[in-house]
Design goal:
Layout: H1 2-30, E1 43-49, H2 56-59, H3 69-75, E2 77-83, H4 91-100, H5 104-107, E3 113-116, E4 121-124, E5 133-134, H6 153-160, E6 167-171, H7 174-181, E7 187-192, E8 197-201, H8 210-217, H9 220-224, H10 280-295, E9 305-311, H11 313-321, H12 326-349, E10 355-360, H13 369-374, E11 380-381, H14 385-399, E12 405-409, E13 412-415, H15 417-422, H16 427-438, E14 444-449, H17 460-468, E15 478-482, E16 486-487, H18 501-504, E17 505-506, E18 508-512, E19 518-525, H19 529-537
Parallel strand pairs: 1-9, 1-10, 2-19, 6-7, 6-9, 11-16
Antiparallel strand pairs: 2-17, 2-18, 3-4, 5-8, 7-8, 10-18, 12-13, 13-15, 14-15
The structure holds zinc ion (ZN) (2 copies).
Residues 50-51, 91, 315, 362-363 line the site of one zinc ion (ZN).
Length: 555
């Protein structure tokens, strides 16, 4: 028995040593072909252009220069049919979805504001009263990402590198900087309209870095305010837009007509908050982003860093003048020049091919109802707030419940279920009564019980979008869907929040490191951006990600 065992052991030993020799031999030839480390870009630059509809890539294409949008489209990979898979399509939701690969139902950011029944008030998406402003005495810094319930791709990059990768985010809007930067950003910076400076909060740091103080000390807003807003090219060449003087455009303060030139000089040193409504607001943000690169040594450590830039002026201009205005066309022609400059700067500092760049938007925009009416297109403005007032009095009459509705926000009615219970009334009946009332109103396509959406007579696509926008703790009871082209306001200007393509079809273009140039018309979603970045970087997807990797764009 012992001998048998010994023989067996010797045989095994011999076999092992033979295979070990074989391994050594084959390793000798194979070793050089395996890279020692995973290849990653030096820097990722994510850019969200606030309110940029997909069609702007092409509507102004013939007027773009070689180095901006044209370079992006031709050198990059464009997922042409990228949609937002939820509604309402608002800024905070868009920024969260791009960077988390998730939807409001999961990431919790269901609007710029939402109603909190416990607090009895609206909550702002990035408000945080437990932190302090850094860089100003204003309250503009009482902000953090604490309401975001999941991680971002930027958080995942930080964790994947054991926090050696740096993440810097910037935007004129606080939410445009904070949500992309995630919970663990090294610095998220946004604009303080009171001082004209970039600021942050104690969530990130106790004091501004020296380079941010130096940047603020340049007082660049004064430079931008030193000129009135005239068109970049002769105004007669703006043939993609309607005439300049339209009554449905919103005026700047002190203006009699919404026409060029818009007199900005008068606001120098006085009204820094107007910076957001000037095309130079984008230039200013990109100057800050450029300054961050050498100051933070981005792309130099051997770990992949991330610079998240969100350009907000496009949104303010779009709201005020609409997507068919000369002001909007001019803003994109200027942005194209800024992009060319920015790409040139990245080529110079990080090196062409060493950075991964993507550009997308947080949402699109509805045509100004006045413009649509003028051109015989289906459209209208609605004072939806009046529905709350009317319904309140009808419910009081019918069910004897006072103030049964807390509020109407994010296209949703929110009932005060305690008030209904106290009045011993039937919540389901009141809800159905409200739906029956709403569907009779002009401009309302449908109104549905969100918590029972499965039984609603709606297309699957709409059910999916409403469900993805519904968070059990933060959302309302009845969702109001407007007719296409309708906007819930009677004031001049326009907005966005709808499920329709004009609000939900966004650009999605990747360029640079690891990206195979090309184009697809396959349907993709905003939620696919973060998992695609994760795949390119070989890092974990964000914790609430439901997106899919856009495999066609990976080299
Ligand atoms: Zn926005
Ligand atoms: Zn907006």
């Amino acid at each position: 028995m012992k001998i048998k065992l010994l023989c067996f052991s010797l045989a095994v030993l011999f076999a092992n040593s033979v295979s070990a020799q074989k391994t050594v031999k084959s390793n000798k030839t194979a070793t050089p072909s395996y890279p020692q480390t995973i290849a990653r870009p030096k820097l990722v630059v994510g850019m969200v252009v606030d309110q940029m509809r997909w069609d702007y890539l092409y509507r102004f294409y013939s007027r773009y220069g070689q180095g901006g949008f044209k370079r992006l489209i031709n050198e990059g990979f464009s997922a042409e049919n990228t949609l937002i898979p939820y509604t309402p399509t608002l800024t905070a939701c868009g920024h969260s979805s791009v960077y988390t690969g998730s939807v409001p139902a999961i990431n919790g950011i269901i609007g710029n504001n939402w109603f909190d029944p416990q607090l009895g008030r609206d909550v702002y998406c990035v408000e945080d009263k437990s932190v302090s402003t850094v860089g100003s005495t204003s309250k503009a810094g009482l902000m953090s990402p604490k309401n975001l319930l999941v991680t971002t791709v930027t958080d995942e990059l930080r964790m994947a590198s054991n926090f050696r990768s740096k993440v810097i985010s910037v935007s004129l809007k606080d939410r445009g900087a904070i949500l992309p930067g995630g919970h663990t950003a090294n610095g998220s910076y946004w604009y303080d309209g009171a001082t004209g400076n970039f600021i942050t909060s104690t969530h990130y740091m106790q004091q501004l870095p020296a380079w941010v103080n130096d940047f603020n000390a340049k007082k660049l807003p004064n430079k931008y305010f030193s000129e009135d807003w005239n068109t970049l090219y002769p105004i007669a060449t703006y043939t993609e837009s309607t005439a300049d003087d339209k009554p449905y455009e919103r005026l700047f303060k002190d203006e009699k007509t919404a026409t060029f030139p818009h007199l900005f000089k008068q606001y120098a040193n006085k009204n820094y908050s107007l910076m957001t409504s000037m095309p130079q607001g984008n230039t200013f943000t990109l100057e800050f982003a450029k300054a961050a690169i050498p100051a933070e040594k981005l792309g130099q450590s051997g770990n992949t860093d991330f610079l998240a830039v969100s350009l907000s002026s496009t949104d303010y201009v779009g709201h005020q003048f609409g997507p068919n205005s000369i002001e909007l066309e001019d803003t994109y022609l200027r942005l194209d020049k800024d992009l060319e400059d920015f790409f040139g700067y990245l080529d110079k500092t990080i090196g062409k091919g060493n950075y991964l760049f993507f550009l997308t938007a947080d949402h699109g925009v509805t045509h100004v109802p006045g413009f649509s009416k003028e051109n015989k297109l289906p459209s209208g403005g609605l004072a939806t707030k009046k529905y709350k007032t009317e319904l309140d009095s009808l419910i009081l009459k019918e069910f004897k419940v006072k103030d049964a509705i807390f509020t109407l926000i994010n296209n949703q009615l929110i009932f005060d279920t305690d008030a209904i219970k106290d009045a011993k009334a039937d919540y389901s009946k009141i809800k159905q009564f409200s739906i029956d009332y709403l569907v009779k109103q002009e401009g309302v396509l449908n109104a549905v019980d969100i918590k029972n959406i499965g039984n609603a007579s709606l297309s699957q696509d709409l059910k999916m979008k409403i469900t993805n926008g519904y968070n059990a703790r933060r959302s309302g009871d009845v969702y109001i869907i407007l007719d296409a082209g309708w906007y819930p306001s009677l004031s001049p200007g326009t907005g966005h929040a709808a499920w329709n393509p004009y609000d939900s079809h966004i650009p999605n273009v990747f360029m640079g490191w690891g990206v195979k140039p090309g184009k697809t018309n396959k349907e993709y979603y905003m939620t696919d951006i973060a998992p695609t970045v994760s795949a390119l970087l070989h890092i974990q997807q964000p914790s609430g990600s439901i997106g899919k990797v856009i495999t066609e764009l990976i080299k």
